[in-house]
From TrEMBL, chain A:
Pfam families: ABC_tran. Residues 6-232 form the ABC transporter domain. It comes from Mesorhizobium metallidurans STM 2683. This is ABC transporter related protein. One of its GO terms (molecular function) is ATP binding.
Automatic annotation (TrEMBL), chain B:
Keywords: Membrane, Transmembrane, Transmembrane helix, Transport. It comes from Mesorhizobium metallidurans STM 2683. GO terms for biological process: response to zinc ion; transmembrane transport. It comes from the Bacteria. The keyword GTP-binding does not apply. Its main location: membrane. The chain crosses the membrane at residues 20-41, 74-92, 104-122, 142-165, 177-197, 203-222, 229-252, 258-279. This is ABC transporter, permease protein. GO terms for cellular component: ATP-binding cassette (ABC) transporter complex. It is found in: Cell membrane; Membrane. It is a multi-pass membrane protein.
């Protein structure tokens, strides 16, 4: 697969030796727009963290195509809203990949910050202190920062939480614009109607992929039912995962993905 | 005019020790106050105090081995401070424990060792000397040391400014775009130790943290941006040093507490009259715009 943006190779991610993503294999095609769907605790956010690299794999690897930068909008931001910063300061952080630690911000950078704010409907908010923003405005500000990062791979973890329907529409339009620009996008979403309407591909997770491929196929009732039967809790004394033990699950997963592959490609 | 000269200029013009005290304390403000602003914004205001205690065993070791010499005490304090800062920082970064708890544990152990060391050999007068310092006895060697510390601090802040702001504002974001997060945190802790050590011969270990935190805490009431906040903190630091030294000269008060109390006065005035202070908030509370 030469056009893979992300390759998961036997990827296991988790916490305290309990997997949240278990032996994931497969690829995300360059330019794909994929929704990541699943119950609470099914490993969606964990997968995002693993791709960005803030969580190290317990086994296996995520391989990113060379030269592809990631922009990541986390579900639970560690943003300190009491920090004395203005909207423009927060959005300007998105210039990091371009300017790094020491590069000066040029006039064109300031212009692109204004344009990014305009694109999320926050034109003229530059000077507002961030502690005066509403939840939805803050979310749009963070979208503006993602926009500014100009990354080839965009990871959005539940970006529509606490956002009104008009704004969801605006943000979806923005995501579609990115899709048109051949960026690879993965979005964690809960609203299945939203997924059916806007996302060509879907990964349905329940610690392992239940289904992965074209959205209409993936979100078939039998798949959703299987995903719903997923047992969220850790088994404190679950047996250790042995290499043999998961070998056939591998093949199983691979089958799944290959089944979906030709349609996705 | 003569009275003005007598009150404000003459003490510095006539006495070499007052000049050195002024230069030393102003230089300290230049480095310590911006560091204090970031300590405050990172909610580590009390960590400064903890670090000031943590320095003691190193300073005491230097004192016991070489007597009241500035260089050994400074280097000792630096080593002790860095061990505690790195240890506490590492425990909080790589285990589940938060920084406040690990910092408390490390500094308490360090402080106990320091008290033990001083009590084995010295008298309580020596301990007082280490703890409270004296700005009026700064020699040229000490001034050079403070100058070096200030230069290192300002250069490091200038280089790592953007990363430091990002690490305070949105650490997860910084981790997603760069590996600088942890190094910047440790560099910052290093600067805290450096400035506390720089301050302890002038003001003592306990009061040097006052010059770091009080101007920063006061500046918070005047502005909602980081850059002006740092500048303002430095200016408040300057004013406190001048006022404190004059007070100490005219009223024969110990210089360290006089400087810190001057900063304390500015702090209370800022709470009341600052543009983001109490009175202002109450006045505009009753009026609002239409949108």
């Amino acid at each position: 697969m030469t056009n893979a943006c992300l390759t998961f190779r036997d990827l296991t991610l988790g916490y305290n030796s309990h997997p949240a993503i278990h032996h994931l294999n497969g690829t995300i095609r360059k330019g794909a727009l994929t929704a990541v769907v699943g119950a609470n605790g099914s490993g969606k956010s964990t997968l995002m963290k693993g791709i960005v690299g803030v969580l190290k794999p317990m086994a296996g690897a995520v391989i990113r195509a060379p030269g592809v930068r990631a922009a990541y909008l986390p579900q639970q931001s560690e943003l300190d809203r009491s920090f004395p910063a203005r909207v423009v300061d927060l959005v300007s952080l998105g210039l990091w990949p371009r300017r790094g630690l020491l590069g000066r911000y040029a006039r064109e950078d300031r212009d692109s910050v204004s344009q990014a704010l305009m694109a999320v409907g926050l034109g003229g908010f530059e000077k507002r202190p961030i502690d005066t923003l509403s939840g939805g405005q803050l979310q749009r500000t963070l979208f503006a920062r993602v926009l500014l990062q100009d990354a080839g791979l965009i990871l959005l973890d539940e970006p529509f939480n606490a956002v009104d329907s008009k704004t969801v529409g605006d943000l979806i339009a923005l995501i579609k614009r990115w899709h048109g620009e051949e960026r690879t996008i993965m979005v964690v979403v809960h609203d299945l109607d939203l997924v059916r309407q806007n996302f060509p591909e879907t990964l349905l997770l329940a610690r392992q992929p239940v289904a992965w491929g074209e959205t209409r196929e993936t979100l078939k009732p039998e798949n959703l039912l299987r995903a719903r039967r997923f047992h969220e809790a850790w088994e404190e004394n679950a047996p250790w995962c042995e290499p043999d033990n998961h070998d056939h699950t591998h093949a199983h997963d691979r089958d799944h993905h290959h089944g979906a592959g030709p349609r996705a490609a | 005019m003569d009275m003005f000269y007598g009150l404000f200029i003459a003490p510095f013009a006539d006495f070499g020790f007052m000049q050195r005290a002024l230069i030393g304390s102003l230089m300290l403000s230049l480095g310590a106050c911006p560091v204090g602003v970031f300590l405050m914004l990172r909610r580590m205001s009390l960590s400064g105090d903890a670090m000031a205690h943590a320095i003691l065993p190193g300073a005491a070791a230097g004192f016991l081995l070489y007597g009241l010499e500035i260089l050994p005490m400074t280097i000792g304090g630096l080593i002790a401070g860095i061990i505690v800062a790195l240890g506490a920082g590492a425990v909080s970064r790589f285990t589940i424990q938060r920084e406040d708890a690990s910092m408390a544990a490390f500094y308490l152990i360090s402080f106990a060792i320091g008290v033990l060391m001083v009590s084995i050999r010295g008298s309580s007068v020596d301990l007082m000397h280490v703890l409270f310092g004296t700005v009026l006895a700064l020699n040229n060697e000490a001034l050079a040391l403070i100058g070096g510390i200030v230069a290192v601090t300002l250069i490091s802040l200038a280089i790592f400014w953007r990363a430091l702001v990002a690490e305070c504002l949105d650490p997860l974001f910084l981790r997603s775009v760069s590996r600088l997060g942890s190094p910047v945190h440790f560099i910052f802790l290093g600067l805290v130790v450096l400035n506390l050590v720089g301050g302890f011969q002038a003001l003592g270990t306990l009061l040097s943290v006052g010059l770091m935190m009080l101007p920063a805490a006061a500046a918070r009431f005047w502005t909602a941006r980081v850059e002006p906040m740092c500048v303002l903190a430095v200016l408040i630091g300057f004013a406190s040093c001048i006022a404190g030294l004059l007070l100490s000269y005219h009223a024969s008060l110990p210089s360290g507490p006089a400087i810190i109390l001057s900063a304390g006065v500015v702090y209370f005035a800022s709470i009341l009259f600052g543009t983001r202070g109490v009175l202002r908030a109450r006045i505009i509370h009753h009026r609002h715009r239409t949108a």
